[in-house]
Write a structure and sequence with these properties.
Length: 190
């Protein structure tokens, strides 16, 4: 009897000790999990600038050209859709078999979908190209002026007033670099 009583006491002590250890760990664990920086942020001086991507985009001739291509492509796509729709209506009026109409409809959808995807890729490619060129020009302007941080003023959703009050507007300088780059490309013989 004594051994079973001793075993129960030992078991109770072990369980309560384990419970206290777990509770202790749980009490301390959040302190280790908290996202606390190893050192506190220090105030520092940063020169920053901003630019207006919309104004820069509007001032680049290649953007106007790609926009014209996009508009023409969309117009052609609309014409193609109208042509296919007319063809399908004509087939229905001529009482063509349903299978033939369905086949033509599937073909039309495939052609239009392919043209839509090509148009989307064209627009995406043009936009990416412009963004890369603007980023490179902004970086070059920042280096030339010893600016630490450059942001797109249109992309600020909070805290932007401090950027505008204390930052340097480099919109025109970036646009000037891009236009000079475009002129240089046009002068190079191919």
């Amino acid at each position: 009897m004594k051994s079973s009583k001793l075993g129960k006491n030992t078991f109770c002590i072990l369980v309560s000790g384990t419970a206290f250890a777990l509770l202790g760990c749980l009490a301390v664990l959040p302190a280790y999990c908290a996202d606390v920086p190893e050192k506190q942020p220090e105030p520092m001086t940063v020169k920053f600038a901003y630019f207006n991507f919309g104004k820069i985009r509007a001032g680049i001739p290649e953007v106007a050209n790609s926009e014209a291509i996009r508009i023409n492509s969309e117009a052609q796509l609309r014409k193609d859709v109208e042509t296919w729709n007319s063809k399908l209506i004509k087939m229905r009026e001529e009482k063509k078999p349903a299978a033939e109409i369905e086949k033509t409809k599937q073909e039309a959808q495939a052609v239009v979908r392919a043209k839509q995807e090509a148009l989307a890729q064209l627009v995406e490619s043009a936009n990416l190209s412009v963004r890369v060129r603007v980023a490179q020009a902004a970086e070059a302007e920042a280096r030339s002026r010893n600016i630490d941080l450059v942001v797109d003023g249109q992309g600020l959703y909070a805290g932007g007033q401090k950027v505008f009050d204390h930052g340097v507007d480099i919109t025109q300088a970036v646009l000037k670099r891009l236009l000079a780059e475009s002129d240089d490309k046009q002068k190079v013989p191919r």
